Amino acid sequence: MNIVLLYGGKSGEHEISLVSASSVARNISPEHTVHLISVTKYGAWYAEEKAELERICKDKTATLQVHAEEKNRVSIIPGGGCSGAFYVNKKVIPADVVLPILHGTFGEDGTVQGLLEIANVPYVGCGVFASAATMDKEETKILWEHAGLPVVPSLCITRADINDSSSYDKKVQLAIDTFGFPLFVKPCSAGSSDGASKATNERELSFALMEAFQWDNKVLVEKAIDAREVECSVTGNSVTYDPSKPETLLTAYGPGEIVPKHTFYDYDAKYNDPDGAELKIPAEITPELTEKIRSMALKAYKAVNASGLSRVDFFISRSDGSLYLNEINTIPGFTSISMFPKMCESENLSFTNLLEKLFLQALASYKAKNALRTSRT
User: Fold this and answer.
1) Contact call for residues 219 and 194 (beta carbons, < 8 A)
2) Distance CA 91, CA 77 (A)
3) Cα distance between residue 175 and residue 141, in whole Å
4) pLDDT tens digits, residue range 182-217?
5) pTM of the model
6) What is the DSSP-derived secondary structure letter of residue 243?
7) Which of its termini does the chain have fewer beta carbons within 10 Å around, N or C?
8) DSSP alpha helix (H) spans, the chain
9) Distance, CA of 94 to CA of 87 (rounded, Å)
10) Among 352, 97, 364, which residue's Cα sits nearest to residue 246?
11) pLDDT digits over 138-156, tens only?
């Protein structure tokens, strides 16, 4: 198969995408032909030379780069399909499956998924709705609560509230009165803890809100729970599962536990500090709790119509053992220390076989969707 690997992106997680995509590229089976398309921080797409793939495959410590050479600018043709969607220098880039390793905005939020749908090519991961809904933490909570799943209590403040000082002050005070300190403040639609911080008093809350609103026009203020952080990997097609295609079966792997050594599992702990957190796979919990978390991860995945893959994150309250859903990541990290591939590997699904499974799922989803009628004639 011809695999088109998209990486980079117009996102605060651009650099993480480069690292994740490098790991992915090195683990794709040599049976496939990999075509690299990089996306700049300004959103322009460029085809990379074969030498870039060869470079990072030869050097396991190397990271993919973005080479914005105008002669390699990529054009996308609506309805082009696998043999005519992507062009560079008037030549087709064949795309049997597109693998977007684009974390965060303009990659994980339904925008690229919509573009690939219009181009009519198979792609790995969630569709437009699931990608958009899960990128917005407030909307995800609404969907999960509707499905009867437990979430951390929160309050949403919008840019419109800021523009009305009376409304803003009332909402901030309501959050303080309802939840008390400490509080977590996070942008609704940003990843890798960009713009997220913990506030222990009103002054810190004011600064936390200012920081979060630099990343998004909607901000969540959450009750801070003293909790253990555990995660589950999930694969499968929740809407189009077909028993004749075992790769589409919903499957949970893990859970694993993250033990942060920072105030919380922030950006530095995730990516900059090699000792920022301890990863425990499997998590040191009872078999009963393990099964409960796996079951809830599958329910959370299905509640948002997820497909392909996702990492579902949980909190376990230290005070009473209560279990809460935190968030879902539809394009989780694939770096050397990322939990998603590690949890799969812990259950004998190697990185290469995981990718193979995702390619087959993408083809199955594409076939199921293309079988639907789009016209009365």
Assistant:
1) no
2) 12
3) 17
4) 999 999 987 667 889 999 999 999 999 999 999 999
5) 0.93
6) T
7) C
8) 14-27, 50-58, 111-119, 128-135, 137-146, 159-162, 165-179, 202-212, 267, 287-303, 339-345, 351-370
9) 9
10) 364
11) 999 999 999 999 999 999 9
